[in-house]
């Protein structure tokens, strides 16, 4: 099975969400950012995810942002909004809303408040969502990010969901960083789109049959990720592929030194000249000024080296 | 400082939420349950908490349940609804709504999706809530339940919140089970209401200057908790106090053998003759039939011994 026959496949940006002075999502800036990401080579935008601070927004704020993006001219087929929250009925409402604006594929966290929940309980939750929505268009990308959700998506659960709802559970975003887990899913579930959350793993995962990536660093180096996606079959000796992969590794290091999301926002603020881009909604915080200075110096050196 | 000068003080039930066949909160049954809990001696109802499955309900469902309870004749001064969710703006909306129906004291989880958040970030979150609501009536009970929220409430954070908002942050529910943490807060923060989440610790905490409890087992043995609250100054040799404490310890064991919330619901279903009480909303699950049988046999033995 080739990568491009999987759905979704390609490079998706776990897009940052710019905030206005009231710490509300800034629609105009976000639409501009989505355009930038697509222009840079992203195949689509995984908005309203962990990187997008979606779990700090109300359901109404999430719905309004998604509507604005579609109204702003971004094709809904290129959007993979996050719609999974702690409350079952809110997950259903957000998913239904996404379908109503023309989106057909969503990224869905498992319910994440209660801990130590069984696979039966998570299966029941996903099952209720699919059944209550009852819309054959719906396609769900599961979301494995145990370091945040504290709720891993087990292979047994994937098997069960695919068995009962084969047309619905089409893939998974794996943000665990555990490459063996990703390749095990590729091997065990033919036709299932495994998307990596850690940028440096895009290349090796594609070579193992993965579908692509949904990453935060794409806010910064979408072009390199897009290059790797197009050329992953090239030899490791290919200079351009080597250079792209090296920049991806380097960029990931750059934004991992301090808090990742705040770092990415600081770099976008610098690129766009819009200081407001630095805002995060509590409980997340902007970087202290000293860290911004250090980061931007490193980012400038990175950009200079990349020319 | 005496226990009764703290606010809130007494025995509060972390009330279970009965669900209808659609797994939505059953308002009529919930109001009846609240009346039962107050009749049994609870000083108030801490509805919409962890035990009440609140984080599995949408904001609209939470608001509707609270309104129904107040419309059903339960005095809002006796209610301590949970209003803290992952999204800042939703926490604000739920808290504002509680104030609008006459409630003045809420139990507020810290934002619980992002992990490894700093005290500065949690402070900023609580601070935004208080400032945006801007209502002097608001009193907040912090909620320390690291095993679920993965976000402990540190003493340094409490100190800071009390310093900046002395009239607002009036107490904490400590569900960690760590008695030393509770007594340390009692000692360090005079006038701050420390409420325990683990029933057997009510007696020792009251003797150290704690304010009371918010517990799940109160759905079952409110009378004993109320007895302990009224008589904690009695001698350890007092037969009635001894018996109440022994029943509390025993009841806690009873509902800790299998999943706690499902166990409590099964026992309430048996007491009321309403099988629907057994329902939980995914990702939580009802007990398997074999466990229900075992539990109810144990519960019957417990009730018989308690006469």
From TrEMBL, chains A, B:
It holds the Pfam family DHDPS. The active site is at 143 (proton donor/acceptor), 173 (schiff-base intermediate with substrate). SMART domains: DHDPS (SM01130). One of its GO terms (molecular function) is 4-hydroxy-tetrahydrodipicolinate synthase activity. Pyruvate binds at residues 51, 214. It comes from the Bacteria. The keyword Lyase applies. Keywords: Lyase. SUPFAM superfamilies: Aldolase. InterPro entries: Aldolase_TIM, DapA-like. Belongs to the DapA family. PANTHER family: BLR3884 PROTEIN, DIHYDRODIPICOLINATE SYNTHASE. This is Dihydrodipicolinate synthase family protein. It comes from Bradyrhizobium betae.
């Amino acid at each position: 099975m080739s990568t491009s026959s999987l759905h979704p496949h390609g490079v998706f940006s776990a897009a940052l969400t710019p905030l206005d002075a009231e710490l509300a999502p800034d629609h105009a800036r976000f639409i501009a950012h989505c355009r930038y990401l697509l222009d840079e080579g992203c195949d689509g935008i995984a908005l309203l995810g962990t990187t997008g601070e979606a779990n700090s927004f109300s359901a109404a704020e999430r719905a309004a942002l998604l509507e604005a993006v579609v109204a702003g001219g971004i094709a809904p087929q290129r959007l993979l909004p996050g719609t999974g929250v702690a409350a079952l009925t809110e997950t259903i409402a957000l998913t239904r809303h996404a379908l109503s604006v023309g989106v057909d594929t969503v990224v869905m966290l498992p319910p994440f408040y209660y801990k130590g929940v069984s696979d039966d309980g998570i299966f029941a939750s996903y099952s209720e969502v699919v059944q209550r929505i009852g819309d054959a268009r719906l396609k769900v990308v599961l979301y494995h990010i145990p370091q945040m959700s504290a709720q891993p998506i087990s292979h047994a659960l994937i098997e069960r969901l695919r068995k009962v709802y084969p047309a619905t559970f089409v893939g998974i975003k794996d943000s665990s960083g555990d490459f063996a887990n990703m390749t095990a899913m590729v091997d065990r579930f033919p036709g299932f789109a495994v998307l990596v959350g850690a940028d440096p793993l895009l290349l090796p995962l594609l070579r193992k049959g993965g579908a692509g990536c949904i990453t935060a660093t794409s806010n910064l180096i979408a072009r390199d990720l897009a290059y790797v996606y197009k050329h992953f079959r090239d030899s490791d000796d290919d200079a351009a592929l080597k250079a792209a992969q090296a920049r991806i590794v380097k960029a990931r290091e750059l934004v991992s030194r301090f808090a990742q999301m705040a770092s990415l926002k600081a770099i976008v603020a610098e690129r766009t000249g819009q200081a407001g881009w630095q805002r995060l909604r509590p409980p997340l915080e902007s970087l202290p000024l000293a860290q911004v200075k250090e980061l931007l110096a490193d980012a400038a050196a990175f950009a200079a080296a990349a020319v």
